[in-house]
Task: structure prediction
Amino acid sequence: MKTNRRFLSAAIFGFALALTFSCSGDGSGDDLITLDDKGNDIANYRTVKIGDQVWMAENLNYNVTGSKCYGEGGIVYDDEKKDYVKLSNSKIKAYCDKYGRLYNWATAMALPSSCNSKNCASQITAKHRGICPSGWHIPSNDDWDKLYLYEDGSGTEKYYRAYAGSPVAGKYLKATSGWNDFNGISGNGKDTYKFTALPGGFGDGDPEDNFYSAGNDGSWWSATSYYNYEAHHLDLGYVYDDAFLNEHSKSHLYSIRCIQDDDNLDNSNSNTQNSCPNAVTNQGTVSCGGQTYKTIVIGNQTWMAENLNYNVKGSRCYDNDPANCDIYGRLYDWYTAMALLHNSCLYDDSCTSQISTKHRGICPEGWHIPRSEDWSDLIDFVGGFSTFAALPGGSGHYDSNFDYYGVFDYIGEGGYWWASSESYMPSRAYVLQMSKKLEKAGLNEIYMDYLLSVRCLKD
Result:
């Protein structure tokens, strides 16, 4: 079911900006132009329900400092002339009316402009409103993933990374008109679910103010940051039918589509949203998420005696084989285990402010992800580095050749269990590591995006 609401044409909402240009290039001689915008009242925008998500069905056109219309205050690269030109005022207005405004990342996120050049992950909330209407937010990578999984009809939970996506969803997302041809082949899409994506192009941002590719390409910001000076965005082009996440400078100017908050996505960093539900602790067992785990008392600690096998987005079975999950439990990256936003602790930033002393993460209620000190206490109790009973579930990690989690190692040979404690090394956390060959257990530091096992500790 799709829901659409026409914007209220009678309510000319927002701000009007009067700009004076000295026109050249294809100038029409109009020296003054008023750029009307729709503000950020959702009543002024069409919306559409796709699966269990509700999206804006047109680009945000909210005139805030840091935003620009295509060509505004700068020059545009003309593909036919193979040169830069300055657009007339009337053409700039036409672009804005059709495609909405373009925004740098910090402006989109309603964060200080300094966040365009540093990691501000600690200021990003789970459903980060930014400049979206009340009750709506800037989509995260997980939101975009879920959209193009639905659009391409796969309906399969996959763990996407930058440059990965759907090879076909673009044709279903793109509008049926407005996209240029490529070598005589139309770049238009089917617009199957009325998302009506249009190629608004992009801008370099300050200080260049050059604009490119309106009619050819569309890019929409994600709330998920990447490097200090880069963030993710969805890319669609007129040449191919794919939809994928990319990353570029936060100073670039891209479009915005907002998504409604009550879409029931499991992408929170609240430390309970993704936790194993319906927990019941009994004598010798704990149950949650449809699984029952044996427990064991070791010293003054009560541990799960089995690896967690809670199927939450971001987790995988070793070698993508469910039979391995039945034996060894699932594998999780650190962010998923901790129920934090992915990539929120990159480089010099830390998630310390988001980590509680007994951090529940995805564990059942009344249990938590063990700290490095908890693992040390366990090692000391069982005799230093001697081996205690545990199943070696191996590990998974990112495959740079195929851009997905597709490399698995050491099942039956090595076991690795996350700690909630961050390492002093950027983007790493502590793990308990055991090796069949070395017959010992000890603490190590591993990159947070590796897929490892989880054992929960009773509070």
User: Anything to note?
Assistant: Residues 360 and 427 are 20 Å apart (CA to CA). The chain has two domains: 16-260, 280-458. The chain has seven helices and 31 strands.
